[in-house]
Amino acid sequence: MTDTAMSAVNDTMTHPAVSDVPVATDDHARLEARRTLDHLWSAGKSFLGSEMAILGGAMSWVSERHLVSAISNAGGFGVIACGAMEPARLAEEIDATQALTSRPFGVNLITMHPRLDALVDVCLERNVGHIVLAGGVPSGATIRKIRDGGARVIGFAPALGLGKRLVKLGCEALVIEGSEAGGHVGPVSLTVLAQEILPYLKSVPVFVAGGLGRGDAVLSYLELGASGAQLGTRFAASAESIAHPQFKAAFVRANARDAITSVQLDDRFPVIPVRGLANAASRAFMAHQADTLRQFQDGALSREDAQLSIEHFWAGALRRAVIDGDVEHGSVMAGQSVGMVRSIEPVAAILHDLVEQAVDALIQREERTAR
Ligand SMILES: Cc1cc2nc3c(=O)[nH]c(=O)nc-3n(C[C@H](O)[C@H](O)[C@H](O)COP(=O)(O)O)c2cc1C
Question: Is the CB of residue 335 below 6 angstroms from any atom belonging to ligand 1?
Fold first, then answer.
């Protein structure tokens, strides 16, 4: 017997032969876990028409044709951020996105946009399948118009009561977004919103958002009754995102605690909380409020002018950060999930990891309960 043959025999005494290695069992466990995941988010997947029930949350300046089509092409569901776009500009963006993907994607419209009706028409004329209505409670008339035009409506529910009202008004799915999220945020964390809403709102798919960076966390919300998840921050830092390299580099550097909400100095002058990375602009905003307050108290500014001055502070600031790359004087909107952005990855890799982390978590749980 040659040395090689001898060592092969010894090997089979200590290790099973390749055919005996339970590869098939591992594959089987993975397959089963995938099936479980598919089952858990099936309502979300069939509502969106995508392979994964993961929406790329609309982000002004960031969620344009390239990122949106990349997310949809990789099996997620991209959403164009209309923001302040005029109808003709939105039409151009939808056409360009449709040229880059044949998969479903949505459009996010801000309900207080003065040309909301015309924006809805643009979406319907172009057969956009899903419209997300953000930034306030939409009217029943808008929801009806969208549904009559053949598209599906997704609303934002900041509380259970409002969620139920939106469903009554005709919303066919909801996003519940916790205060961990990037951009404009409500006061309640996703951990609490999920417990307040998911057990009691089962008639439509509910997508969770805010602070999500890993698939095992997404899985835990699916198990609580969510139908899918919406992520923003991780996609903003993806390879396909058109955000300036300095903007993405700031995401890679940041920890969760760096993503803070804007602070209101005085009750008389409300500030809508926006979560973003602390920088020179966020510090200057505090000084600007203090100065404006002083001028109001001295009678140099009317109440209205003082409020306007505070509101105008951030005008153009998101563009400055995202497009120009000025991450010190612009608004670097980011969720607390920014701490989980460790490198700039392609969208497909981000989505792949999210699914595999959920699958791994399901397998580990099976193993724990089998012990
Ligand atoms: C840079 C940035 C811009 C955003 N702009 C919008 C927006 O225009 N409209 C909107 O509905 N949500 C906006 N969001 C929120 C996202 O759609 C999404 O719900 C949120 O990012 C989810 O939380 P995460 O950042 O922790 O993943 C924005 C978020 C970020 C980070």
Answer: yes
